[in-house]
Amino acid sequence: MTEQLTPAQAWHRLQEGNARFVAADSSHPNQDASRRRTLVHNQNPFAVIFGCSDSRLAAEIIFDLGLGDVFVVRTAGQVIDDAVLGSLEYSVSVLGVPLIVILGHDNCGAVTATMDAIDTGNMPTGFLRDLVERITPSVLTARRDGTTEVNGTAVEHVRQTSKRLVDSSRVIADAVEAGSTAVVGVSYRLAEGKVVRVSGFGAL
């Protein structure tokens, strides 16, 4: 079973794994048959990663992790909805995860689509429209602050998502206030493979 970490220790462990990945020195931990067998009846992840669904953003790979290490939730543009909130609250209240990571990235297609919709006035159809509508406040905030390019806007979206998560969930807000959980927003640089912290709530 994974040892219980503090929020700061969990964040440090993720940083160490990402540094190995960036250096092309990944250790690929906890990926063997023995580890698989130990996880049959329980799990004790040390972090939950809520990230974009982009195929270039596989959380366990970029943080050099294995089975049972992290609880992962993904949506296009890391958009929050009720299912996401329920999943994240489960990770905190049932699994006791000490760290929530909001994982965005540069050249995000969902952010780009939202920027295009705002610029042209042409909203997409179907459920893609819902994604665009949920990302729109982040794009408008970025533009109000003078940011008009996609990567800076994607960073602002991570910041806004982190804040929205704490504002929306009493369970998570209480855990952050108690010091048992922290929320950190990070932006992943596709070319470098590096994660950069851009926001945070709680003791890190």
- Please trace the helix and strand order, writing H or E for each element: HHEHEHEHHHHEE
- Supply the CATH class: Alpha Beta
The percentage helix is: 40-55%
Q: CATH homologous superfamily?
A: Carbonic anhydrase
Unreliable residue runs: none
Mean pLDDT score = 94
* 3D shape: globular
Strand content: 15-25%
Total strands: 5
CATH architecture group name:
3-Layer(aba) Sandwich
- Number of DSSP helices? 8
Q: SS-based structural class?
A: alpha/beta
Looking at how many chains there are and whether they match, the oligomeric state comes to single chain
State the distance separating the first and last CA atoms: 23 Å
CATH topology: Beta-carbonic Anhydrase, Chain A
Q: Biggest β-sheet: count, sense, barrel?
A: 5 strands, mixed
What's the Cα radius of gyration? 17 Å
Largest sheet: spatial strand order: 2-1-3-4-5
Number of domains: 1
In short:
This is carbonic anhydrase. The chain is of the alpha/beta class and 204 residues long. Helices cover 47% and strands 17% of the residues.
Explain the overall architecture.
There is one protein chain. The chain is of the alpha/beta class and 204 residues long. The chain is 47% helix and 17% strand. The chain has a single domain (7-201), classed as Carbonic anhydrase (Beta-carbonic Anhydrase, Chain A, 3-Layer(aba) Sandwich). The chain is built from 8 helices and 5 strands, in the order H-H-E-H-E-H-E-H-H-H-H-E-E. Helix 3 (59-62) links the parallel strand 1 (47-52) and strand 2 (70-75). It is globular, with a radius of gyration of 17 Å. The two termini are 23 Å apart. The model has no long low-confidence stretch (mean pLDDT 94). It comes from Arthrobacter crusticola. This is carbonic anhydrase. It is an enzyme of class 4 (lyase).
